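From the shared-data thread, chain only:
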Amino acid sequence: LGNGESCRVTCAPGTVVNGAANVTTHPIVCAAGVVSSPHFACGPLSCAAPAVPNASNVSCREGPEVRHGGRCTPACLLGFSPRFTDGSASCLNGTWRGAFECKESHCVVPQGPVRNGGDTLCLSGSTAILHGGVCVVSCKPGYMSTANLTCQDGGFLPESFACVPVPVVADVLRDITTTTQMPPHPSAVWTYRNHIVVLLAVGVLAACAVSWCKPCTTRKSASYSAFSDSDESSHLMDEEGYDVHPAFRDGRPSSPFAAPAAAPAEA
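Structure, as tokens:
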């Protein structure tokens, strides 16, 4: 080509320009001895990213197109995981070999023994937990788990836990008196708050038990002294200076109140 001249390059049968479907020619221009469109090639067809339910709008991480010979890396939505039908999805001259689906993620519950753990890892006995589900850890009697396990995209979080002895009241009191600040971890704060609630509940129950079982008290018997007034009639007076009502004089009070002292007789 001379300077300023142009032409269209035609790809061989069975090939296309840069893998684009139905594009078999490409224009080029000669400018000062340099071709204006040097970056093109004739080759096999590329594959458009397949439409897959529960996947992103562009289902392949490589982009909207995957070149001949390339593989599609699935881009499933959060909570879903890819399941291949033939182990992979590969592009061969515009055609996909193999496919995949985006299935709801789940976590397989490990079956190995846990120190001081129960018969099954999860209290429910489940062998698989769906994405977002929680496995309540089962421990032997007298033990409690440091954390429950949440399924996130096929894996459990947190990654570690342990079955530890259930704290007794003495241990809780020691921890409260020796700890100057609350532990920073949210699960530890939750545990300490529950310890305090348990202690308060025990104290309330103990106070109620004492109140219900307290025996009825009787009125303190008064000391009586006899004296004579001006008309020489006999009276009884208690130690607080009140006349004793006749109902009290036989030693078996029939009323809890003493009658006030009688007014002195007129001369």
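The domain at 47-104 is CATH 2.10.70 (Complement Module; domain 1).
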